[in-house]
Amino acid sequence: MEVRVANVRKEFDRFPALHDVSLDIRSGELIALLGPSGSGKTTLLRLIAGLERPTRGKIFFGEEDASLKSIQERNVGFVFQHYALFRHMTVADNIGFGLKVRPGATRPPAEEIRRRASELLDFVQLSGLEKRYPAQLSGGQRQRVALARAMAIEPAVLLLDEPFGALDAQVRRELRRWLRDIHDTTGHTTIFVTHDQEEALELADRVVVMSQGRIEQVGTADEVYDTPNSPFVYGFIGDSSSLPARVEDGQVWLAERPIGLSAPDVPAGAATLFFRPHDVELLDGCGGCIAGTVVNSRRVAETRRVELEVGGDRQRVEIELPIDHAAANKSRIAFRPRKWKLFPRAD
Amino acid sequence: MSNATTRTGWRFRQPSVIPGFGLTLGFSLAYLTLIILIPLSGLAWRSAALGWADFWRIALDRRTLHALEISFGTALIAAAVNVVFGTIVAWVLVRYQFPGRRIVDAMVDLPFALPTAVAGIALTTLYAPNGWLGKPLMALGIKVAYSPLGIVMALIFIGLPFVVRTVQPIIEEIDKEVEEAAATLGASRFQTITRVLAPGLLPAVVTGFALAFARGVGEYGSVIFIAGNLPNISEIAPLLIVIRLEEYNYAAATAIAAVMLALSFLMLFVINLLQSWSRKRYG
């Protein structure tokens, strides 16, 4: 089922949580809503589910205007961050709940509901736990039951709110791969919210990066990582360093010196230079480079990450060096970013 | 979730690393003995002095039986009524914001604080055949004051806060997400309440029922004013005990008291079993 969010605005007590958000989601896509807390990602998910009503704008499921439908009629599978399992019901009853509450005509017979619950339990790899109560399951198992419960109603869209938020790192990684498999098998249109960029980039077909109630960028993992379209996205996705710079005559200037980067397409004026710490080339002499004094050096996995103080006003940037590089404190290092981007800055 | 670890069955729970298990257990037992067990055994002792034949004669006396029936019957009905309406009151107080909510919330506690005699007199004035409510009800052929119905009214008044105050915190704890989950799965509001929320409230409701019931059985002050106290019609067991005491018939008084005690204990025990069953199942 395609989902289309058209110019949606949401206010809570006059405080805007979403400003004029539009988003097209293709059928069968796995989409991540990624952003820091307060960016409006959960609000957007709840609006799609019908748990909140938009202040303005519409949400379409296929051709139908879902804004006119109640939550019950929308037929969405929603997995809550804390699972929200019914704790007085067994696992099987939890999964069968959505079928049991259907009106008489469309409700499958009890035997069929039981069979379906059992099938779904097999599917989420929890066979044989039908009779358990949620309190008797581990966090990861509860998460799977919540997913099975949401899938039991054959939802038009599957919505997951921070699905792995409450789990430890190992279980998270495992469930992440498993969710991808499930998505590929069932083909449900799936939208999940996360603040973990690694999770979003690894799992989703497309990532929606949000900040302060707006969508900053929508794209594949490659697109948002390699061609971020705003300072926020550059700073939020992956590691980045930034320096205040200036553009003059198509050249990038840092303080009073050009640093050997040409930017013919960027209008002259103040700008911020962004680059990735690992994507720099080290230079010997400095006839057009960024030079700084090492103030801090840390070993991170297969590289050494050093913090430099650059220029008279001691701006700090991070770059990565090979581990055998002798980056002792107070030594000077000269480098130039290989890939970088300038965003104009007003000041 | 938390009570999964406390189900240890019939054995002492493992003493924790915090010292003082022996001391605290000893203190609790000594305290309970002093405050509850000794006075109650005095009661048993006193009624034992009667001898079996006399004891049964008094216990099975028509007037005694009737008084017991009235006491336990009205307490059960009142507790049942309170369970329904007390739960609704608690629900409204937790779920809705309305002007004066805090005042209503405070008012629920009034039956706790008010001297019961005052409550009894107020209710009697209201429901007496010439009272504000008594008159129109009388015209409809319903006699409230000076009948068992009046006792039920008084016990409803007395027992309400017990139900409200036990159920209220549990309603406050209901996770909003659980209701939302039920809604996304297609459950109507009614189905959400009956199938998802009510079972979670059951243990607290049973506790509230037990407290209101126990209070109702022992209630004296408010009831004697509104009941009319006609032997075999609207005479409660606690009053009968007082009557016997005033006749200096201590043996008969203790005998009735002993029967009441045994019955109360039995019923509370059953309710407790019910409670632990529902807690296990729904907690």
TrEMBL record, chain A:
Q: What are the recorded GO MF terms, alphabetically?
A: ATP binding
Query: Which ranges form a coiled coil?
Result: none
Q: Name the Pfam families for this protein.
A: ABC_tran, TOBE_3
Q: Which family does it belong to?
A: Belongs to the ABC transporter superfamily.
SUPFAM superfamilies reported for this sequence: MOP-like, P-loop containing nucleoside triphosphate hydrolases
Keyword Nucleotide-binding included in the entry's annotation: yes
UniProt KW keywords: ATP-binding, Cell membrane, Membrane, Nucleotide-binding, Sulfate transport, Translocase, Transport
**Which protein is depicted?**
Sulfate/molybdate ABC transporter ATP-binding protein
Per the UniProt entry, the signal peptide is none
Where does the record place the ABC transporter domain?
A: 3-237
Automatic annotation (TrEMBL), chain B:
Q: What subcellular compartments does it reside in?
A: Cell membrane
What membrane topology is annotated for this entry?
Multi-pass membrane protein
Q: InterPro entries given for it? A: CysT_permease, MetI-like, MetI-like_sf, Sulph_transpt2
Top-rank taxon of the source lineage equals: Bacteria
Q: Membrane spanning segments where?
A: 21-45, 70-94, 106-128, 140-164, 196-214, 250-274
Keywords linked to the UniProt accession: Membrane, Sulfate transport, Transmembrane, Transmembrane helix, Transport
The residues covered by the ABC transmembrane type-1 domain are: 68-271
Oligomeric state and interaction partners are given as: The complex is composed of two ATP-binding proteins (CysA), two transmembrane proteins (CysT and CysW) and a solute-binding protein (CysP).
Similarity-based family? Belongs to the binding-protein-dependent transport system permease family. CysTW subfamily.
| Biological function | Part of the ABC transporter complex CysAWTP (TC 3.A.1.6.1) involved in sulfate/thiosulfate import. Probably responsible for the translocation of the substrate across the membrane.
What protein name does the entry list?
Sulfate transport system permease protein CysT
Organism, by scientific name, is Ollibium composti
Gene name as annotated:
cysT
